[in-house]
Amino acid sequence: MKTVNRGPWTVNRELMKIQSYKDLNVWKKGIEIVNLVYDLSEKFPNQERFGLISQVQRSAVSIPSNIAEGFSRQHTKEYQQFCYIALGSCAELETQMIIAKFRGFVEKETFAKLEEFLNHESRMLENLIKSLNR
Questions:
Q1: Which of 100, 101, 122, 130 could disulfide-link 105, Cβ–Cβ 3.0 to 4.6 Å?
Q2: Closest CA to 100 of 59, 40, 46
Q3: What three-state secondary structure class fits 24?
Q4: What is the predicted pLDDT for the residue at 119?
Q5: Is residue 128 one of the residues assigned to a domain?
């Protein structure tokens, strides 16, 4: 078994096959969230272009971006901090989408789907953070 040092942790390539942040399911789910948010925000009123649309897109993009940046750091504590930022972006995005739902920009069923994605992403991030503590 070939073991390599990959930033803040050691990865067994044969067992985990994680050589890039793109191999992480938590990052992949973050990209799914971004795509869903962009699709949803295209339907928001045009007057929200510089308001809520911009905010929800930035929050969504922040999730996988921070996972990727953290993965590239050389210290576990730095990686954890970026994962915490991504976790905060999940809460920020959920709050913004609650506002969008109240304003009538998002249907209940669509909001429920995004909320499910965000809850799943948050749990994966919490588990990743815990695993980095070991």
A1: 100
A2: 40
A3: coil
A4: 98
A5: yes
